[in-house]
Amino acid sequence: MKKLMMTGWLALFALPALAQQHFTTPEKASTALVDAITTQNETALNDLLGDNWQQYLPPEGADPQAVARFLRDWKVGHKIVTEADTAFLNVGREEWQLPIPMIKTAEGWHFDMAQAADEIQTREIGRNELSAIQAMHAYVDAQQDYYQRFQTYAQKLLSSEGQKDGLYWPTQPGEEPSPLGPAYSPTEPDAGYHGYRFRIIPDSDKQGFALIAWPVRYGETGIMSFMIDGNDTVYQTDLGIESQQKAQTLEAFRTDKAWQPVQ
To answer: Is this entry keyworded Signal (predicted)?
Structure first.
């Protein structure tokens, strides 16, 4: 999971375009990058990562905790893994790998953001999928909480205005919080929760509760779709480019051979 949580630090700076720097060894390139991150040297970072490198990174912005983890892991240990003219930086006891390869050319070693794009997106998708799975477990807890309060299961994620007919409703300071937060059903049309949308569906016998989740943009924010019922087991399948349509038309929780338990 740690490997899927580290790309946010790369969006720490927004810089003008400058010429990219080359090094005689990948070790020197890695040390220069860590020095630039440690000192928050904007010019040095842009020299290292090249023109327009921001376009390849996740859009969520800076993650100070991820920066701190990366620098801490660098101090714990780091090594270069080289295959022919490509090298990667691994840091920490778990040897987390920086998704940006270092490429050797006639001018020397340099960081290649274009080659990093696919790996960065893959990690972003993986991180979103893990968040969706965690959100589904939180949904089960929220439904159980709601049942203890009202002796029924909620049929909505967001309550109607002034009501408590969903898992979330606004509260005032000092009031008991609602079972679930508002983020699972954003009001903005293109928004989602960590790249996913959620919809309550009936369970198989229509006596309990279930939930389905699908990626906001298939292949970009996620690939797998997920379902969960009151047994708290998450199932997944790849619904393809029609993930949204298929998820929105699913009438009830069912686990045919296409849906496999998430380990």
So the answer is: yes
